[in-house]
């Protein structure tokens, strides 16, 4: 490396190290301050610089108290004139705080929260936000959100608190927004002069401000336009770093793990297709094409196959399995539960009924020891072609002669650990993950951004579909009428009981009670009961009876297995539907409408909250799983998406996937292109970006580097 470059690299590294340094490096932070900051999870200089305002008060847009409108949500600023605490009884009090802004008085009212008086002393300048009421001749807000604006301080020559746009940083009882404001201003002065990890070319392309400037504008915006630019840059920045990590992970998987380069599909796959009693949908053909293309590459496939229940994923998976057999390897299917493993086994042996002379075996907890030994022997000697089972089939003493493809049903439970397990055994099979959970684009580009994705977006012809009805408790009788009609036609119905938090035992009790009640409502109907407390044999019996139509109405807690396939069932009634997630409800309604008969899903709910209303409207109006998932994301917010350990991804600080979808797509394209050119980010121009990726993902380096 030329000396000049070397010096520059050293300089960049030392800058970066300063940011990663402890807060004690910020001048003027005392011990107690440090404690308060740590309590807010702010430990490094960088954490403080990236502790962005929760919102901003634009003084030009504030209402004068004299101009507020009753019933509106407003923010007003004034000086505290009085704070009166009335103790009514032990633990009961009313606090009235009057503020005045030269035009009128407004009262903040708090019940049983006397401590606010300590912070809202007369003379303090505050902002109150809340709904304006008019009571007993005065303007008031009950429990307003408030921010203390004063202890006006000038730091150096810059005015911190008196600008026209006032940042309100997330604060605590001990550390007010005003204190944070001053502290952050000081930190910016001391550390804010930073090199930028976004390569210059990209910054130029989008006209983004430099990192130093953007940081400043995030905290102390000069105008709303500049704030907006800064926010865009920060969001792009964050998404770019994430996408670079994903791109590096994918790259690593390709370059460092040898895989099996399968030949193009041939005779066995073709004879399966010829023997099927139906024609593949266009979606199935496309998905298999994508899969076989991946499988032909000399590195392991990592593909997600998503499609609603009944969209025909299993057939596609089977074709892929046959492809690996053609190439002289074995295949495995791993299901999350034994029931599902059994179902896959039945499906596959059914589809292979044409007889390709293949040996397919099922390995579950029910397999006898002797059978188990036999199966394991066949797997390791190569006498076995396809092994179906639960997680057990990649664990312990199971050995394959040559595992070419593993199909995993439901993505959540197959992660790094499983892949490592296989790797330790010397296998780097192609992996196909099937999921019936519709994953919106926003997530397949992020949470699952290191996987390739194939989508089956149409159901095979011949499905009558489902009509969704959302009713209040008074609509229950109507729902019973629908069930009665369907039963008369010889169809079957599911009734799913409310989710009970208390305990599985309580939930089971509730289900038993429901079943007793329904047996009064539907006299002469055979009613089955299914809940988590039942012995496995009893559960199996009930399910078998339901399949055989000896039970017509199945009352269950949510243990209804994903993927249960009873085409004659035409009603899905869910009690207390607002306690279920939207994707769960969508899965449940996917249980019916699978045959030739039009089906009904009835969701009974009595949720009052705004959110619950929105959710119910969404499930009633949106049929498509992807759009529903997107709506769900919007209603729930994205806060908790990445926090889960499992995802391997740090939370987003600024970016929001739905709002910033366009930025996400740009960031992804830019990141993948960049990593393509410089897979290990060795170019000095990418040094800071690499450091940034490593520090953002430091809790998940294993995730990042061990594909
Ligand atoms: P998934 O695994 O996506 O839930 P399956 O593969 O089990 O769906 O398919 C559901 C049912 O539809 C099965 O009975 C299967 O045989 C049938 N099926 C699959 N593909 C087609 C198709 N192209 N046309 C008609 N029926 C199909
Ligand atoms: Mg391959």
Notes on the structure:
About 2% of the residues have low confidence. The strands form five sheets. The protein has a seven-stranded mixed sheet with strand order 6-7-4-3-2-5-8. It has a seven-stranded parallel sheet with strand order 14-15-13-16-17-12-18, with helices on both faces. A six-stranded parallel sheet has the order 19-24-23-20-22-21, with helices on both faces. Among the domains are: 114 residues, Beta Barrel (OB fold (Dihydrolipoamide Acetyltransferase, E2P)), CATH 2.40.50; 138 residues, P-loop containing nucleotide triphosphate hydrolases (Rossmann fold), CATH 3.40.50; 133 residues, P-loop containing nucleotide triphosphate hydrolases (Rossmann fold). Helix 13 links the parallel strand 14 and strand 15. It is of the alpha/beta class and 707 residues long. The chain is built from 24 helices and 24 strands. The site of adenosine-5'-diphosphate (ADP) has 14 residues, from helix 11.
């Amino acid at each position: 490396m030329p000396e000049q470059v070397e010096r520059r690299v050293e300089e960049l590294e030392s800058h970066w190290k300063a940011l990663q340094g402890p807060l004690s490096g910020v001048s003027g932070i005392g011990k107690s301050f440090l404690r308060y900051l740590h309590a807010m999870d702010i430990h490094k200089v960088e954490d403080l610089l990236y502790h962005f305002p929760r919102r901003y008060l634009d003084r030009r847009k504030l209402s004068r108290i004299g101009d507020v409108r009753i019933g509106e949500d407003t923010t007003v600023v004034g000086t505290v004139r009085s704070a009166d605490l009335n103790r009514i009884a032990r633990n009961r009090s009313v606090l009235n705080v009057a503020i005045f802004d030269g035009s009128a008085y407004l009262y903040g009212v708090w019940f049983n929260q006397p401590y606010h008086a300590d912070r809202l002393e007369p003379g303090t300048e505050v902002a109150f936000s809340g709904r304006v009421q008019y009571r007993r001749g005065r303007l008031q807000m009950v429990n307003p959100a408030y921010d203390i604006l004063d202890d006006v301080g000038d730091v150096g020559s810059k005015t911190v608190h008196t600008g026209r746009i006032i940042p309100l940083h997330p604060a605590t009882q001990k550390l007010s927004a005003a204190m944070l404001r001053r502290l952050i201003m000081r930190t910016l002065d001391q550390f804010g002069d930073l090199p930028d990890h976004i390569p210059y070319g990209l910054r130029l392309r989008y006209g983004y401000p430099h990192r130093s400037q953007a940081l400043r504008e995030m905290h102390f915006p000069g105008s709303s336009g500049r704030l907006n630019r800064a926010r865009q840059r920060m969001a792009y920045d964050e998404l770019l770093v994430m996408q670079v990590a994903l791109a590096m992970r994918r790259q690593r998987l390709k370059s460092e793990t040898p895989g099996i380069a399968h030949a193009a599909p041939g005779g066995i796959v073709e004879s399966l297709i010829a023997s099927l009693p139906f024609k593949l949908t266009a979606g199935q053909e496309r998905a298999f094409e994508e899969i076989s293309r991946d499988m032909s590459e000399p590195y392991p496939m990592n593909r997600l196959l998503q499609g609603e229940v009944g969209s025909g994923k299993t057939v596609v998976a089977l074709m892929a399995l046959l492809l690996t057999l053609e190439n002289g390897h074995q295949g495995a299917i791993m299901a999350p539960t034994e029931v599902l493993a059994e179902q896959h086994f039945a499906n596959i042996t059914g589809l292979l009924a044409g007889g390709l002379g293949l040996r397919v075996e099922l390995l579950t907890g029910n397999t006898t020891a002797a059978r188990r030994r036999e199966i394991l022997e066949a797997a390791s000697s190569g006498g076995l072609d396809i092994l179906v089972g639960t997680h057990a089939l990649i664990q312990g003493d199971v050995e394959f002669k040559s595992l070419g493809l593993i199909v995993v049903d439901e993505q959540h439970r197959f992660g790094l650990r499983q892949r490592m397990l296989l790797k330790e055994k010397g296998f780097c099979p192609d992996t196909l993950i099937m999921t019936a959970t519709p994953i919106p684009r926003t997530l397949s580009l992020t949470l699952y951004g290191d996987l390739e994705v194939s989508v089956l977006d149409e159901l095979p012809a011949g499905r009558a579909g489902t009509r969704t009805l959302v009713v209040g408790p008074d609509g229950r009788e109507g729902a019973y009428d629908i069930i009665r009609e369907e039963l008369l036609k010889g169809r079957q119905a599911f009734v799913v009981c409310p989710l009970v938090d208390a305990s599985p035992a309580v939930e089971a009790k509730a289900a038993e009670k429901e079943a007793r009640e329904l047996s009064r409502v539907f006299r002469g109907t055979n009613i089955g009961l299914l809940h988590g407390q039942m012995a496995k044999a009893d559960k199996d019996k009930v399910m078998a009876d339901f399949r055989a139509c000896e039970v017509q109405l199945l009352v269950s807690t949510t243990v209804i297995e994903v993927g249960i396939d009873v085409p004659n069932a035409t009603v899905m009634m869910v009690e207390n539907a607002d306690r279920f997630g939207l994707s769960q409800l969508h899965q449940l309604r996917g249980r019916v409408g699978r045959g030739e008969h039009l089906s009904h899903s009835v969701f009974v709910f009595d949720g009052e909250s705004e959110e619950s209303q929105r959710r119910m409207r969404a499930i009633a109006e949106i049929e498509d799983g992807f759009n529903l998932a997107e709506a769900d994301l919007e209603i729930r917010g994205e806060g908790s998406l990445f926090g889960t350990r499992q995802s391997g991804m740090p939370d987003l600080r600024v970016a929001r996937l739905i709002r910033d979808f366009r930025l996400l797509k740009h960031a992804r394209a830019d990141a993948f292109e960049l990593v393509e050119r410089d897979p290990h980010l060795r170019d000095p121009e990418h040094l800071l970006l690499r450091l940034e990726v490593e520090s953002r993902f430091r809790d998940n380096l294993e995730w990042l580097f061990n594909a």
